[in-house]
From TrEMBL:
Keywords: Signal. Residues 1-18 form the signal peptide. This is DUF4198 domain-containing protein. It comes from Campylobacter ureolyticus. InterPro entries: DUF4198. It comes from the Bacteria.
Amino acid sequence: MKKTIVSLAAVAALASSAFGHFQMLYTPESALEKGTTIPLKVVFNHPFADEHTMDMGLQANGKIKPIEEFYVVHKEQKTDLKNSLKEITFKGNSNSGKAYESEYKARKMGDHIFVAVPAPYYEKNEDTYIQQITKMIVNVAGAPTDWDAELGLKAEIVPLAKPYSIWTGSTFSGIVKGDGKPVPFAEIEVEYLNYDVDVKNNKMGEKAHYEAPQDSFVTLTIKADENGKFTFGIPKAGWWGFAALGVGKSNQYDGKELSQDAVIWVQAKEMK
């Protein structure tokens, strides 16, 4: 019986690592009619299946390293928000993980580009590290300013469509860049945020919106073209995450392999 339990645990761990890891940078609404104070959650999880929530910054020795950078860019001005972060425990439907939260006064018209640079995370099942440099854009009052700005990140997806004004049935396009250069034929994982997020209580909703007919539908995979450009059709309203894998130059950390990924989140709306 003991051997059976160990075997099942191992299978569960392998299944967890097979689904896409996504650094989530969440707020409920990306297109604001007017300025207001918005909540921000910084969580490392699997947004479609929600079968595991990771401890952000987990190292191979079991210690936790704090987030490296957290800031916002508005009209080419960068504001450091790292000191506004509070450590939280975020509860998924299978387990809880160490995460962060903040609030931001999105009062000025235009685009506010949020950037989270977490410490590399140790993935025990693969004996490697993952660092997902993540962008999410909030717009106030519909005035476009910075949405297509290239920030010069080590790993970055530069949007070619406004990430906050996407109708379902349309597309989202972007260019994958590593240290400022397009990455030809980059592999990009795509996942849908399949659960409501309880911002007040720092947890995922209990019921999934959709059920995947097979595991390959949980984490979708697309490729960029020879110029690093990709396009993806958006079938449903909600938040969609795009993760370009291993596009940053850094490929080693603490003596182990590092995947330095670029992540961007976009939000689609139903046309009513």
